[in-house]
Amino acid sequence: MTSNAYPTTQTIHTIGILGGGQLGMMLAQAALPLGYRCVFLEDNADCPASLYGTVYSSEQLDDFISTADVFTLEFENTPTDTVQKLSALSKQGQKKGMFPPPIALEVAQDRLKEKQMFNDLDIATVPFESVSSKAKLDAACQKLGLPIVLKTSRGGYDGKGQYVIKETSDIAPAWQALKDAVSGKGSLTPTPAPLIAEGFINFSREVSMIAARAQDGQIRCYDLVENHHHQGILAKTHAPAVGTSQLFGQAQTAITTIMNHLDYVGVMALELFVSKDARGHDRLLANEIAPRVHNSGHWSIEGAVTSQFENHIRAVVDLPLGDTDNVHPSIMVNVLGEYPSISDVLSIDGAHYHSYHKSERADRKIAHITLMPNDVTDLEKALGKLVAVLPNKVGLDKKQSESKK
User: Fold this and answer.
1) What is the DSSP track for 46-110?
2) Quick one: which of 317, 275, 295 has its CA closest to 367?
3) Please, what sign has the CA dihedral across residues 387, 389, 395, 401?
4) Exposure on the CB side of residue 105, measured as CA atoms within 13 A
5) What pLDDT does residue 160 have?
6) How far is CA 307 from the centre of its chain?
7) CATH classification code of 3-98
8) Tell me, what's the pLDDT at 191?
């Protein structure tokens, strides 16, 4: 490639992404129109991102580093030692940056640290307790009251690594199922860490806010969206979440406080519960952060002025952030396990299909579809048509049939 392939003022040509899944793929898709190439550190050579750039295995870390000018990631369980190394190179002036910073991963990889950070920043959460023994689990159940959710504090995603304790007879099997995480044995987590017991709260819905923070501290927030899960995996997202305008300020303040506290750069998602305060008013409880682009923000590719992926790239290469306004209400649906007929999907007005180029496997996220019919009153009708042609209906057929009763 000749030296005049880029503007003379452009010092970043290639972005190194830790991970090569669908998030890395969509980051690369957003980077290309801005004039940036991407390379990936990923042990699966046939990963989705391989369509958009060279993939280096973990054994080729030095080659990966030498190829890229600046670094980011697509998954919060990225090894922190790799992120620390890239951050150190940036501080030494050898590279242009590692975004987000290592501290963001250290917090996001540990649910106890995360909840403690929320509380330190006066951001409300569900009540929780650290659990490192059967006796402490008994004490936590007594203090929090049943039911509770017992989770590994490290590792686990999409509903994995957790156990719902509904009655006292569940305590022993819950401890048996998750105790190896405390010692670092088994497959739950390679890093020994206490479990976390979280008290149940009554909430009306789950929402999330996605925001981008630039290197100069500028922050732009997307609308609150409403998320629906099926067996612990995100099934669909409504953007924006209807009737949450009075909660936008709470969410914006919370995510802004977190990002500034961590000196964060890039896109972050904050997952929240909508609950009631003592006076019966809606309030938000923070659940967790994701220090990366997020599944609940996929709608933004078509539905926002600037997608979460483009804004993350802009932040990483130190460009001004783009407008985050919602240009059209939409519903994003995950495709799990088995592909639908693309012809059937695209016969639905306003449907946008995004394949991840993955092989089919039970409960695997292999594509997403965003519905944006021109007439917003047709959204639910379009969703019904989509559910009808999905091989795996991710529970959406049940929700629809129940709503008709």
Assistant:
1) T-GGGGSS-EE-GGGHHHHHHH-SEEEES-TTS-HHHHHHHHHHHHTTSSS-BSS-HHHHHHHT-
2) 295
3) positive
4) 20
5) 73
6) 14
7) 3.40.50.20
8) 82
Q: Helices 379-389 & 396-403, crossing angle to 10 degrees? A: 130
- Where is the binding site for ATP, in residues? 111, 151, 156-162, 198-201, 206, 229, 287-288
In the prediction, which pLDDT does 157 show?
62
- Check residue 6 and report its DSSP letter: S
* 399 close to 228: Cβ distance less than 8 angstroms: yes
| Superfamily of segment(s) 127-199 | ATP-grasp fold, A domain (3.30.1490.20)
- Inter-residue contact 24 to 49 (CB < 8 Å): yes
Binding-site residue set: 111, 151, 156-162, 198-201, 206, 229, 287-288
Query: What is the DSSP track for 321-390?
Result: PPP--BSS-EEEEEEESSPPPHHHHHTSTTEEEEE------TT-EEEEEEE--SSGGGHHHHHHHHHHH-
pLDDT means over runs of 10, the chain (405 residues): 73 97 98 97 98 98 98 93 97 97 96 97 97 97 97 77 95 95 81 93 95 98 97 95 96 98 98 93 96 98 98 98 97 98 98 98 97 96 98 85 36
Angle between helices 248-262 and 111-120 (to 10 degrees): 110
Supply the Cα-derived Rg of the chain in whole angstroms: 21
- pLDDT at 158 (0 to 100): 57
* Domain boundaries along the sequence of the chain: 3-98, 127-199, 205-403
**Top-level CATH class of 205-403?**
alpha beta
**Token reading at 392:** 């795996």
